[in-house]
């Protein structure tokens, strides 16, 4: 079954996206991520963040996750970022654009982030060493075992969320909890932005 | 050309995560701090979807969707707090938010 699937992939269903797509999308995501945290004007940061979100959703498409990519564009780039832009326009940006961009303790923060980066790099290098080690044979991050079905992705996610054939899905309870969380968040946001409580 | 493996996605996600942490720790504008948190959550999502691809099942993608829900709730509440604070103090700088400081 698995080998047949792999041969089917090799025969004619080679992925359309080449490695260059990955490098381009990753480069766009990281460069606009840098712009998010360095721009003085908050609107420019928000626009750069939208570009990052779109690039990450392209990466989701490369990972055979079309539904997550759609959710990323609709909810993140379409919903959350509009919320951010509204708030940026509600609070005045004239004053904050004349002040210092970074706080006084920025070298400490940068050092802490560099320590975190060193941790990540050490983990990734260790995983890579395991990957190339023929003795252990077990990579920390093995190659994908099988291809995810792209055309039925949304249906499979729906079955896991809502259940199928009258039974509850694996994540139905978590889904209901998440809807409750959103309701509480909406109520909280409305109450906090009211002038007189 | 090296084929793209899970490791490549982990590197990108690590870079985005560290950028988000730098933003949270060094910026003064609360709106940009919240945007940096979104950057961090996106890095986590990218890892989850990459692992979902690696194991060939959809649990990672489900987790990513739930994290998007959390991010929306967090952004709504965070920006609500920000507006309430701006109404009181006329500032959105992190280091001037010290009402709870003793």
Question: What descriptors fit this protein?
Answer:
heterodimer; A: 197 residues; mainly alpha; Four Helix Bundle (Hemerythrin (Met), subunit A); globular; disordered N terminus; B: 102 residues; Helix Hairpins; 3 helices; 76% helix; 0% strand
How would you describe what is shown here?
The complex is a heterodimer of chains A (197) and B (102). Chain A has 197 residues and is mostly helical. Chain A contains eight helices and no strands. Chain A has helices at 2-11, 19-38, 42-62, 66-90, 93-98, 106-132, 153-162, 172-193. In chain A, helix 2 (19-38) packs antiparallel against helix 3 and helix 3 packs antiparallel against helix 4 (66-90). Chain A starts with a helix and ends with a helix. In chain B, helix 1 (6-26) packs antiparallel against helix 2 (30-55). The termini of chain B are far apart. The model of chain B has no long low-confidence stretch (mean pLDDT 89). Chain B has helices spanning 6-26, 30-55, 59-89. By secondary structure, chain B is mainly alpha-helical. Chain B has one domain (6-96): Helix Hairpins (Orthogonal Bundle). Classes of the chains: A mainly alpha (197), B mainly alpha (102). At the A-B interface, helix 2, helix 3, helix 4, helix 6 and helix 7 of A face helix 1, helix 2 and helix 3 of B.
């Amino acid at each position: 079954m698995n080998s047949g699937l792999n041969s089917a992939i090799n025969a004619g269903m080679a992925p359309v996206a080449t490695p260059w797509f990955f490098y381009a999308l990753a480069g766009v995501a990281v460069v606009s991520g840098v712009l998010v945290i360095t721009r003085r004007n908050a609107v420019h940061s928000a626009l750069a963040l939208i570009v990052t979100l779109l690039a990450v959703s392209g990466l989701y498409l490369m990972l055979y996750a079309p539904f997550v990519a759609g959710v990323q564009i609709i909810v993140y780039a379409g919903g959350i970022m509009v919320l951010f832009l509204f708030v940026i326009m509600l609070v005045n940006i004239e004053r904050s654009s004349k002040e210092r961009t970074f706080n006084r303790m920025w070298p400490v923060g940068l050092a802490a982030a560099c320590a975190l980066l060193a941790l990540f790099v050490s983990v990734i290098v260790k995983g890579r060493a395991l990957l190339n080690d023929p003795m252990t044979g077990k990579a920390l991050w093995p190659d994908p075992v099988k291809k995810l079905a792209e055309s039925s992705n949304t249906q499979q996610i729906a079955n896991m969320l809502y259940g199928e054939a009258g039974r509850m899905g694996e994540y139905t309870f978590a889904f209901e909890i998440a809807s409750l969380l959103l309701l509480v968040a909406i109520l909280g946001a409305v109450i906090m932005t009211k002038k007189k409580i | 050309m090296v084929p793209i493996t899970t490791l490549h996605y982990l590197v990108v996600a690590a870079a985005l995560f560290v950028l988000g942490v730098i933003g949270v720790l060094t910026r003064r504008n609360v709106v940009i701090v919240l945007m940096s948190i979104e950057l961090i959550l996106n890095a986590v999502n990218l890892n989850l979807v990459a692992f979902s691809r690696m194991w060939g099942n959809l649990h990672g993608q489900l987790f990513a969707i739930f994290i998007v829900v959390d991010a929306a709730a967090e952004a709504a509440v965070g920006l609500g707090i920000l507006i309430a604070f701006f109404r009181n103090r006329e500032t959105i700088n992190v280091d001037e938010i010290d009402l709870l400081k003793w």
